[in-house]
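Annex B.
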Amino acid sequence: MAILIDSDTRVLVQGMTGRAGTFYTDLAMRYGTECVAGVRPGKGGSTHVGLPVFNTVAEARSDTGANASLIMVPPHRAADAMIEAIEAGIGVIVCVTERVPVMDMLRVKAALDGSESVLVGPNSQGVLSPGLCKIGVMATRDAAPGAVGIVSRSASLTSEVVAQTSALGLGQSTTVGIGGDPVHGLGFAQTLELFRTDDDTRAVVMIGEIGGTEEEEAAAYLSKTDYGKPVIALVVGRHAPAERRMGHAGTLAMMGARSAAQKAQGLADAGAIITEDADAVAPAVQKALRGG
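Succinate--CoA ligase subunit alpha: predicted structure tokens.
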């Protein structure tokens, strides 16, 4: 079992005819993802990589039954693409586009209010349920079906933990990249709740970092929830200089904001198992599942 996506997920790709869209659509189909359509205004009626192309998301959904979207359009058009998918009733929307303007994302957040869509991203590596479905730009070589859910703000650290958990024979139920931008869709707390109710996810890895309040919100959620599964957390950025952007737009430690150590302590107080570095994550998961 998995969260958000599974073998029944039918994916359309907004921006499929572009270079990146072409490349990642092809990879997804080779992986086994059921990609059913592309969307590119002005190219409706054509085909690309063997799939029909539509002018709008609504047309694509109506004709193909698509229930998920991968957005691969430039930053200045990404918000409109997300809003179009929301208005068309797409259930899961994954946006991998980086550098979407914050003011644009406020429009997207307003469109999400009251909708049934779940937005992952922007600036996300995507969502992967190993062996079932891939929506995003993540590598799949080291992924394996299993019982560990992973939710992360860092694409590179996700890949590292995926490789480690697979090497120990644990595998992954689903990996979710919530993205590193300050304004985004699905967050840590919401994803933790999805994993909590997934019977096949036996443990959850949460990879956080400095900046923003995602880790604090996750700690608040865990502190008031009988979670029932081990949560292993890694918060990176312990040695990052204060008040300086470190890679992600959301990784900005402002004056008065909580440090990585403080975020980790808050999660520990809420019941999470804290690891100091990426190499310790998979062994901590293994130990927790063995009851150690």
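The radius of gyration is 19 Å. The mean pLDDT is 94. Further annotation is deferred to the next reporting cycle.
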